[in-house]
Amino acid sequence: xxxxxxxxxxxxxxxxxxxxxxxxxxxxxxxxxxxxxxxxxxxxxxxxxxxxxxxxxxxxxxxxxxxxxxxxxxxxxxxxxxxxxxxxxxxxxxxxxxxxxxxxxxxxxxxxxxxxxxxxxxxxxxxxxxxxxxxxxxxxxxxxxxxxxxxxxxxxxxxxxxxxxxxxxxxxxxxxxxxxxxxxxxxxxxxxxxxxxxxxxxxxxxxxxxxxxxxxxxxxxxxxxxxxxxxxxxxxxxxxxxxxxxxxxxxxxxxxxxxxxxxxxxxxxxxxxxxxxxxxxxxxxxxxxxxxxxxxxxxxxxxxxxxxxxxxxxxxxxxxxxxxxxxxxxxx
Length: 332
Fold this sequence. Notes:
Rossmann fold; 2 domains; 7-stranded mixed beta sheet; 13 helices; globular
């Protein structure tokens, strides 16, 4: 399979283009997604190719255009609304949680809601407390919604193509720091990635590191430094939270006997807690030390870079967590 290197943003744009060409029911809408090509350039060129009826610039009203998208989905379209800054997904909680997520169930399958909501996430850009949060755990808590959190251009394209063929609502989170900075090989040939299939990014035997989105890159870097210390870490990316590939996570921890979970969402009541519970239930007898959790500090995200970086997991914090597990193992 031949590949070329794409940025994260280019992979998103290519998936949208290919699927819009395949399925004329797909429409893209949001703030500045049209002629300008999106503030992060993820829809660049789509307006010129598909026109204003399928690539729609909207007013600054998330509740309006996402509500419209839910209605359009129920009447035969597959809308792809973009939430420019994922923090403002708070404005569409009713539309997603009480309407999109429940319509198929409440109508006994008579109505489907094929809807793919693209939303940004993550800090690290000095964007302040209202433009830096990661809300993926909220939607993983809602039955009826599928939650996708890709970390590489390859995964982003394959998972987005799968979402655009889904008959159910999908919330697709993209870390905005990765759009231009993260590059990687993407096949030229057609491919999709199934939901609920974790990816082992690095094979190891001593400890399992589970990370999402941009955190996977910090975790892989930490794993390389740990290898220099003689510690071989296995790095796993769940890729989707709902559905979650519990089996891959549990089997890895059964092999290694230790786990560190890294996520940019707030630590309390979040993804790290749920994944730790999954491991504790499925691999408790194999654990040599308590599961370590690294999430964002439970504070509003600061604007100042030094303070902001202090609230987010980094390589040193991941390495320190692994060393605590190894020390606990030697002390047992």
